[in-house]
Amino acid sequence: MPVVNRIADFSADMAAWRQHLHSIPELEFECHETAAFVVERLREVGVDELHEGIAKTGIVAIINGQGDGPTIGLRADMDALPIPEETGVEYASKTPGKMHACGHDGHTSMLLGAARYLAETRNFAGRVALIFQPAEEAGGGAGVMVEEGIMDRFDISQVYALHNAPNVPVGDFHTTSGAIMAAVDTFHVYIQGIGGHGAMPHEARDPVMAACGIAQALQTIVSRNHHALDDLVVSVTQIHTGTVDNVIPDTAYINGTVRTFDPAVQKMVMERMEQIVQGQAASYGVEARLDYEVHYPATINSPEKTNFAADVAREISGSDRVVDDVPRNMGAEDFAYMLNARPGAYLFLGQGEGAGWHHPKYNFNDEIAPVGASFFARIVEKAQPLG
């Protein structure tokens, strides 16, 4: 079964919704205008319940099917990124310094399209919970929605999400059982030395050299402290210190990211990082403090639900266009919190060639909206069939 005909009929509407959302990007939990637009569309299509203000600007809409049955959850993220837009499209961001550079505008429009179809047809048992989530890029909005009780409040039994995939053929689906994306942590190292004249380094305690030593030593965690077949990334992404060529500064700052899949590896990194920071600081005669922040957990697909979702995707796009064993990647996704709370699956939907995620020239491909909406609709109909 290809794209649902009724959904194809209103593909132009989905494109218009998406392009409007693209023009009004909002960050983190401050998705007020976006949420208001979503609520307006949901009222138009005739959902049975609307629950607003979850995780500040999140929404859960309920559509009742025919007869008793469980509740299935479908999630779309709504937030944008603090990136100046360079697409040149006529519907480009109206807000300088913000843009939809990851396609959440498209994810929202696909779920709105599925909502319209499901509210019209109601060809399923039980209920569907449409989850429109803020703060995926930063803030962990999915985790906040789970903490605020959406899984129990709406009796959600399973949950699914899609993410667009640049430079994957249009309409292809990629997923895998088990871990598909990594856990993400952030580290900050604050170094306190003693400043002085650059010509008299013996009178100072140089935090610049300490920062260099710490940054280099942190890389040995990957090369010398973990099994070569375990996935691990430790990246130093910022070093800030100094203001002028002939002054040794008082302080330095190091920042970076850690990506893991195994909690034991994560624990090892935290312990070794503390040892390295303190050991290097002592060797350079400075003081240092490590702040290690644990963020999103690994995104882990239920094998059973992944196989089911891949079969639905094959109905939409064809068996040769679904890969259900793609290698896991070191990106992160807060949908992990929902998958920790309920079984489900996370899939990527190819949108063709173009700029990648978080690039100022990225733009969602409206051609795939009917594909994604059809996937969401058929997931519900296949998971909770009538009769």
Detailed description of the structure:
This protein has 387 residues and is α/β, with parallel strands linked by helices. Helices cover 35% and strands 25% of the residues. It folds into two domains: 261 residues, Zn peptidases (Aminopeptidase), CATH 3.40.630; 112 residues, Alpha-Beta Plaits (2-Layer Sandwich), CATH 3.30.70.360. The chain is elongated and about 80 Å long. A hairpin with a 3-residue loop joins β1 and β2.
In short:
The protein is α/β, with parallel strands linked by helices. The protein is built from twelve helices and 16 strands. It has an eight-stranded mixed beta sheet, with helices on both faces. The chain has a four-stranded antiparallel beta sheet with strand order 10-12-8-13, with helices on one face.
Task: List its salient traits.
387 residues, alpha/beta, Aminopeptidase, Alpha-Beta Plaits, 2 domains, 4-stranded antiparallel β-sheet, 12 helices, elongated
